[in-house]
C-alpha cells in the first residue's frame, strides 16, 4: 500500500492519499490544492470523523472531483455545521455542510480500489469516530482515536474518556503488534508500541 501524507490547517491535521485506490482519508485545510498539485484523481473520500479540521476541504474536494464521501451518521450534525465548531476555536469557516454518499457502520467493510477496510466505530473523541483497518496491509487509519504516545481529546461535545479507552482496548489493541496506525495528528505508530508504552493505556 502506497501512502502519501499531507499535514495542514491550524491543528496540523493529517490527510492520507492512497494512489492505488484513488482514495483520500480526511480533508484538512489545503488538501484540495495538494491533490491538484500532484495531479491525482479522487474517487472516494473517507472521513474518520466530523471535526472541522478534518473536514475543512471536504465540500471543495467533492465539488471538484465528484468523489463519493463516507462518514458515520452520528457525526452528520458536526459535518453539516462546521462553522459552529470552528467558532469554538476562534476560526471563521463558511464551508457548506456535506451529506455522506456512504454511511459508515461498525463492523462493515468499505472497498477502496484493491483494498478492503473494516470499519471500527470507536466513539469517545466524538460520537462518530471511525477507524479504517486493512488487515491484508496491516494498516489502520485512525483519525483522532489513538496517537503515538497519546489518545484523542475527550473534552469536546460528545466526548467520553471511558468510551474512547474502552474502544481502543477492545478494537485496536487486539490487532497484531506490527499493525501500523496512521493518526489524524502526528507521526505513524504501531499497535504493539502503543500497547507497551502509551501512558494513557496504562490507566
CATH arch. level architecture = 4-Layer Sandwich
What is the CATH C-level name? Answer: Alpha Beta
Gyration radius over CA: 16 Å
Separation of termini?
34 Å
Overall mean pLDDT:
95
Notes on the protein architecture:
With 203 residues, the chain is an alpha/beta fold. It has a single domain, classed as Metallo-beta-lactamase, Chain A (4-Layer Sandwich), CATH 3.60.15.10. The chain has 7 helices and 14 strands. The strands form 3 sheets. The chain has a 6-stranded mixed β-sheet with strand order 1-2-3-4-5-6, with helices on one face. Strands 7-8-9-10-13-14 form a 6-stranded mixed β-sheet. It has a two-stranded antiparallel ribbon with strand order 11-12. The N and C termini lie far apart (34 Å). The mean pLDDT is 95.
Write the layout of secondary structure elements.
Elements: E1 4-8, E2 13-18, E3 23-25, H1 31-38, E4 44-46, H2 52-55, H3 58-65, E5 68-71, H4 76-79, H5 82-87, E6 102-103, E7 109-112, E8 115-121, E9 130-134, E10 139-143, E11 146-147, E12 150-151, H6 161-172, E13 180-183, E14 189-190, H7 191-197
Parallel strand pairs: 3-4, 4-5, 5-6, 10-13
Antiparallel strand pairs: 1-2, 2-3, 7-8, 8-9, 9-10, 11-12, 13-14
Amino acid at each position: 500500500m502506497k501512502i502519501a501524507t499531507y499535514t495542514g490547517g491550524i491543528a496540523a491535521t493529517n490527510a492520507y492519499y492512497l494512489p492505488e485506490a484513488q482514495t483520500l482519508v480526511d480533508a484538512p485545510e489545503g488538501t484540495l490544492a495538494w491533490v491538484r498539485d500532484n495531479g491525482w484523481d479522487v474517487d472516494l473520500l473517507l472521513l474518520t470523523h466530523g471535526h472541522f479540521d478534518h473536514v475543512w476541504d471536504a465540500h471543495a474536494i467533492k465539488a471538484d472531483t465528484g468523489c463519493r464521501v463516507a462518514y458515520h451518521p452520528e457525526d452528520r450534525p458536526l459535518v453539516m455545521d462546521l462553522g459552529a465548531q470552528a467558532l469554538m476555536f476562534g476560526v471563521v469557516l463558511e464551508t457548506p455542510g456535506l451529506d455522506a454518499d456512504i454511511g459508515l457502520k461498525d463492523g462493515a467493510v468499505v472497498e477502496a480500489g484493491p483494498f478492503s477496510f473494516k470499519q471500527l466505530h470507536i466513539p469517545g473523541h466524538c460520537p462518530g469516530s471511525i477507524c479504517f483497518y486493512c488487515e491484508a496491509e496491516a494498516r489502520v487509519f485512525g483519525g483522532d482515536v489513538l496517537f503515538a504516545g497519546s489518545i484523542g481529546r475527550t473534552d469536546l461535545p460528545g466526548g467520553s474518556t471511558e468510551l474512547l479507552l474502552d474502544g481502543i482496548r477492545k478494537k485496536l489493541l487486539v490487532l497484531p503488534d506490527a499493525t501500523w496506525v496512521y493518526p489524524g495528528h502526528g507521526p505513524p505508530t504501531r499497535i504493539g508500541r502503543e500497547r507497551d508504552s502509551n501512558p494513557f493505556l496504562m490507566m
